[in-house]
Amino acid sequence: AANLVLGKEHNGSKNWIYLGSVSVQPSEFIKIAFVFVGTSTLDRLQTAKNLTGFIAFSAICLGALFLMKDFGTACVFFVTFLIIAFMRSGSLRTIALICAVAVFGAFLILKFKPYVAKRFAVWGHVWDDPGGAGYQQTRVLSYAASGGLFGTGLGKGFLKNVFAGSSDLVFGMICEELGLVLAVVVVLSIAMLMFYARSDVTRSRSTFYSISACAAAGIMLFQTCLNVFGATDVLPMTGVTLPFISLGGSSMVSVWGLLAFIKASDERTYAARRKRK
């Protein structure tokens, strides 16, 4: 709500609040609240009242992001909702129904939001307009290729001069300056951390910590896919950040907050093991 009143539109999205020389992105902090509210609500008995409350909170978050035109973060929230809902219900039929409704909503967005439709239109055809709609992705592909396997050297690249080069396009900057080898290592490290969280929470005896850790891991893994694939034109650009890497204080605080859920689950698991010993 604060974004809609106080936020300023920047690059098509109204998701930043400027406090003097400092800019804040509240939607990043809401990710932590979303995981906490969803998990704590459904951690209790999955009554109709609790489930309705979580759905209502999710609808408010997604609706606000829709009005802010921040569709990348909306996708992240929706996937988080699916993870939490599935871990509590275990019903693939319910998830399929939710996805069907989401697909219908996506078609409506593409029809009535030309900004989003434009991103989908250029998807896979960035070289048709390298100086216009495809400028960012073509720069990523060109500069990343110039880095080769081991890069041009830290700080010696050119992608950092392109808009969002150190945030949305940071994967390309890593490829250019540090090389494809290290870029792949970075992505695999994030993926391995998330899969470790997934395997660790299966041993947790707490429903709350298990669901919250899986939801947090799902957010970071999904964001990594959107960022890397969006920058390289495998998927449309969404504007989400690469966890732990992209420039941005709000994003970094959000990532470390999500990591706290995973750490808490890990501590809970080993505390239970120590008690058994």
Helix segment tally: 10
Domains, number: 1
Mean pLDDT: 81
Major sheet size, sense and barrel closure: 3 strands, antiparallel
Structural class, from helix and strand content? mainly alpha
| Order of the strands making up the biggest sheet | 1-2-3
Could you walk me through the main structural features you see in this protein, from its secondary elements to its overall organization?
The protein is mainly α. The chain has one domain (2-276). Helices cover 69% and strands 5% of the residues. It contains 10 helices and 3 strands. Strands 1-2-3 form a 3-stranded antiparallel sheet. Helix 9 runs antiparallel to helix 10. The longest helix has 32 residues, at 170-201. The chain is globular. The mean pLDDT is 81.
Characterize this entry briefly:
The chain contains ten helices and three strands, in the order H-E-E-E-H-H-H-H-H-H-H-H-H.
